[in-house]
Queue: 3 jobs
Job 1
Amino acid sequence: MKNIWIFGATGYVGRSLTKHLLSVKEKNTVITTLAHRSLPFRELENTNLITGSLEDFDLSWLERFPPDVVFHCARMAGKNDRSRQAAAIKGEQANQRLIQALEPFNIPVIYCSGTLMYGNQNKIIDENTPLKPIAYAKWYERAERPWTKHKYPNVDIRMARPAWILGFDSWFYHFFYLPATQNKCVPYYGDGSQRMSLLHVDDCGRLLHHVYTHGKSSSDYNLYVAPPITQKAFAEMIAEKMGLDVVCINQDALEKMHGQTVTEALTSDIPVRTSHEEWHHAFTPIYPTVSEMLDAVLASKR
């Protein structure tokens, strides 16, 4: 039997990945999912569901269902900077515990990170760009250190860094759609010139699988689909589809409303490409353009 493990199977990205892997699952393959909140049991009924958090789940399950690959989409979150710092410390400890448990299996681990790890850029960048985390990534980086700061000969670690993941939940709803419905204007933040690389959440799950099936051992991968677009152009595209105008929320106003961490994220300029051109061209997205992504997301609400 082939065992595929997914940590964080009910999260924003993990849920998409789980749905995709179930749709392409072959005979003699078992999908084991680890989840600890908002459990959609019907969606997970064809998996070995293990409940628990990354820091305390029973590691003996790894011996019972020896993994052939692990997809790591679990992240400990916080609601403010103080709780994010505490979550980062717990995440670091949990990941250290996990990687020590996985070493004997000699397998690939696909770790879902993010492009905020690169910080602001003045040109389109690839996986060879040094990391300088901003916004939420300043805390996520600490949790990821066990995977990035040390070499493990028996673990094939592939860091996957999605760009802006477009789905109805998360940032799109809270910072674009909801303000648009409340104020009848679609906001863009700062001067709107910051560039966004985008992919639909369904394609994000499929790209994570693509990192496993078509990726190289111990390599990093930027996940994106469409070419970079400025945030102002993105807001104008939403406004056109919703029949609204756009409005600029300057950086000072944004920081007063949401604080420094959110401001750094929403005004970040991180356009990405990949150094793995053949790998990227071998992937066929469901939603290849930003317009098609938005159509799908907006239709999901109706």
Job 2
Amino acid sequence: MLRAFSGFGFALAAMPLLVLVIEPVNAVVLCAVLAFVAALRSFRRVWRAADGKRLKPLLAGSLIGTPIGVYALDILPAQTIELLIGIGVLASAFFLWRGGVRDGGGGTAAALPVGGLAGLMGGALGIPGPPVVIYLLRTEADAGIARATLMMFFNVSCLISLTGYAVAGKLAEVSPALLVLGVPCLLIGDWLGFHLFERFGGSHHRHISLVALAFAGAIALINALG
């Protein structure tokens, strides 16, 4: 619901909660699979509204950073992954709270390194969102364009991550039972999020997302340190 309403927040909200009940490595891969299912439903809806000038370098950077992140997933201890997820989510909430939207112009030069960092975080932690969310919400004044560009980035980047996980042999580790449980809930939330955005617009998505992200990040950090 959060993802469809704001354009971001699925992995950021889901990962801190998933690691409470399943192994962090499995949670990272499961999150990417569920994100891909959501992408299949929303691809056509947001394709035309996305900002291609920013989207292309963001995705190019993600192609560079994701394989490095997938490799890091193999070597990082589970507790470290949980700790980094909590820190990453809380940091994104903090910077969104502190930073306002700029004039909507420029900012394309930073898209490539931002995409690379997002790919690195996505491959290793399952949360590519923080760098891209902060970048777009601070450089794109139009909430609709920012939302569509975010969704398109996550739609394609989850496919990049899944390719890396498949090559690394990690897709087979995801339990089919978890997918059976997760996909229906995902689709219901996705439908509800689109409905809420169409009815209420993008004026409230920032505040709602901040509260949800701060809550999820705090839970993940407490769990990692406990």
Job 3
Amino acid sequence: MVKKAFIFPGQGAQFVGMSESLYNNIPASKDIFDKAQAIVDFDINKVCFHGPLEELSLTNISQPAILTASIAALTAMRSSGLDVTPDYVAGLSLGEYSALAAAGSIDFVDAINLVAKRGKFMQEASAANPGSMLTILGLDLEKINEIVRETQTYIANLNCPGQIVISGKHNNLKDAEVLAKKKGAKRVLLLKVGGPFHTVLMREASLKLKNELEDINIKEPVCEIVFNVTGETEDNPESIKTNLFKQVSQITYWQKSVECMVANGVTVFFEIGPGRVLKGLLKRINPELTVHNIGSSEDIEKVKKELKT
């Protein structure tokens, strides 16, 4: 039997116009946006569908917006008759909340409340420690370790072979970019995020999130969930909470997470939510994997046809 996984994108996947076709064409997706609008303190439809991108990319806005877009896509997929039950779920950073909702471990209303606060906590921590994140292509881990030591930056994401994301304050990242190029990096890309995420600079945000998680009802998932901070599965609700708050200020192991699912027999992945970032990462981890994208009503119809052939 073919094993399948649902995977969900994190911050940086946002784009103006995301989920608009779902909102306009799928009543169940519109309902997800309406539920989110009752909780968040900004016009989620306007910013998702019309931007501007600068506003959509703010940490406190992009996080609940991406979660909403992802669950709207999942809901559209399920209501369309595309009958797929995952054996595993996982999400990159913020995407873990979408994965938890997909696995029945957290209610969407609780998730959007939590993520709205998470985004604000991380925005506040970023204001105290202004910074960002850099994707470095073409250098091995040994050279990246040399760079972060010399520039007082931090490894944030181990995403796929040949791609490592570092994080830190703005001036330190500029030094790291120069050094990475000197060491032979193929490309250095500044991410569309507003802070030095997954580092000790986010410790205050992590502690605030820990307090919020105490009041959230996390249930045992109905399928396996792989978590970023370990690259392994976890189903104990209290351990899940620990993973969630630690993830804000620690390295995420996306490559290890994908390899865990593949080692357990997963060969088909559904990237659910805005963008196609994860598909690119998976193809670099293992080119033989099948990845379907579900981000719009057009995507759903396309995947239906692909699965029939």
